[in-house]
Design brief:
This protein is an alpha+beta fold. The chain has a single domain, classed as Roll (SH3 type barrels), CATH 2.30.30. It is built from one helix and six strands. It has a six-stranded antiparallel beta sheet with strand order 4-3-2-1-5-6, with helices on one face.
């Protein structure tokens, strides 16, 4: 993974249960971190109320506390 991708993933890991914007290659969701694994991120989708597993490689950007952290 690139250094920029690691920065976006570090922001997700440090959200401490707060909601953040997550942009993947196919969609944007308002998410809350549930589990942070070696290759997958488990999040709760705030809008639909579902739990989702997202591959770390699919993350394009993370918006947290008004700042956007780009992964690519």
């Amino acid at each position: 993974m690139t250094n920029r991708n690691n920065t976006a993933l570090n922001v997700i890991a440090n959200t401490a249960g707060r909601f953040f914007g997550l942009q993947t290659r196919s969609e944007s969701i308002n998410a809350q971190l549930v589990n942070f694994g070696p290759s997958l991120i488990s999040v709760r989708d705030r809008n639909s109320g579902r739990y989702r597993n997202i591959a770390k490689k699919q993350v394009k950007a993370v918006t947290f506390q008004g700042r956007t952290y780009s992964a690519r």
